[in-house]
Amino acid sequence: MQIRKFKGEEMSGILRTIHRELGPEAVILLTRETQAKDQRGLSRRMIEVTAATEGLQTQERPVEKQVEKVNVTEKKEAPFETQLVTAIQGDIYQELQSIKGQLSKLNEPKSEPEAKQNGKMHETWLEMKTVLKVLSETRYEDPFFSDHERLFELFQKLRANGIDSEMAKSLCQGVKAHLTSMDLQVPEKLSQALKEVLSSTVEVKGGFESLSALSLSDRPRALALVGLTGVGKTTTLAKIAARQVQENRKVRLIAYDPFESGDEARLMRFAQDFGIPAEGVRSLSQLKDIVSNCSGRDLILIDTVGCNPLDPNQLKNLNGLSNEEMPIETHLVLSANTKASDMSDTIDGFSILPIDSLLFTKIDETRRYGPLFSILARKRKPLSFLTTGRRVPQDIEAATPQLFSELVLQE
Which of 72-76, 108-112, 292-296, 391-395 has the highest mean pLDDT? Predict the structure, then answer.
């Protein structure tokens, strides 16, 4: 018997690898979650599958046996249909039936270790069903992919990375428009075209670079962070401020708290640690006076208290944050580990304000970045910063087209 372990982020990819390397007779023995670090040192959730097979190894199987497995129908099939039929009639189907049989026993009293194992088994069963459903339905229902094998593979990758079906197909159509039929068969050209389409679909502007060009007029440059409670506004503002001080720029911190919640204490501690002037204000008139008294070389960074966009009274206190007399760049802070639907609702709720850019925090707390792309594309808002941890000022990066596209397409 040959026993091997396979690791990956997606069950679908692991199953294809097992089928390719161990053959259709392979049996899955164990599925569990592990942690691994990517090239940037961020912790990632991984799936580890232990599989086994008896008899000849993959490279030693007789050619006749392989032909017999593939030619399951009389008609000539495209590679995708062949793989699907083999998967359904081979080890995946058998494994699903085995797991399904085990699931019938879940209602029996179990010890705690057995209950956890059954829970994992149920998750595996559901994920395998999803894999087969995507493979079978998407290809046959959409004629666009029936004639474009490479684009369908690209579509699968985009969906696996969290981009919704409609947006993924739109990107594939954009790639097709960029390339000839011959170039579509070249992986390098396909990848490059996709990055170009991604970059042209959303606006990504490096946050630090834009801050470098401070106003040459008498007015100072002012930037405010708004958003829900707990998304990381204060820590993010501290990171931006510390970076600007490192660049020898004159920075001033303001905690705008019209509710008098007393939340400015954290910002004041950051200001003290980095030697940055800071103060709290309770009204827009106070804020206006401070901004008007600063010089054109000053950078004013404004922290705001967490706001519930479903409460009109809370939004009312932020509505006058930017006007002709007090031009302030407003960045809406969103947590990257938030559901796409909730992110969309938050943006809509804050749309009463003049939102200039979106800013994503907690990039290190999720493993799929496709939803962030979908949000930017649909809401037509530029992206300014990305934060990747809690360290001040290290864990923040200016969003650039190259960085964001690599993040979205990360395996």
Answer: 391-395
* Global confidence as pTM: 0.64
Of 80, 366, 354, 371, which Cα lies nearest the Cα of 202? 371
Report the C-alpha gap between 9 and 13 in whole angstroms: 8
Closest CA to 348 of 320, 373, 381: 381
Q: CATH number for 207-408: choose from 3.40.50.300, 1.10.760.10, 3.30.420.140, 3.20.20.70.
A: 3.40.50.300
Question: Chain-centre distance of CA 93, in angstroms?
Answer: 31
Which H/E stretch holds residue 15?
A: helix 11-22
Mode of pairing for the β-strands spanning 396-398 and 329-335: unpaired
Rg for the chain (alpha carbons), in Å?
Answer: 26
Q: What six digits make up the tokens of 225?
A: 């962070």
Higher pLDDT among residues 13 and 330, named by residue: 330
Counted residue by residue, the chain has a size of: 411
Q: Where would I find the beta strands (DSSP E) of 163-298?
A: 221-227, 251-256, 278-281
Q: CA-to-CA distance for 411 and 403, rounded, in angstroms?
A: 14
Sign of the torsion angle spanned by Cα atoms 233, 235, 240, 245: positive
Distance CA 372, CA 349 (A): 17
Task: Give dist(CA 273, CA 108) in Å, integer.
Answer: 58
- Residue range 7-23: mean pLDDT, rounded: 81
CA distance 410 to 402: 12
CB 91 within 8 A of CB 18: yes
Q: Any idea which residue has 């000022």 for tokens?
A: 393
pLDDT, one tens digit per residue, over 88-113 is 444 444 545 555 555 555 555 555 55
Whether 407 and 369 have beta carbons less than 8 Å apart is answered as yes
Domain ranges of the chain: 2-141, 151-201, 207-408
pLDDT tens digit sequence for 150-172: 888 888 888 888 888 888 888 98
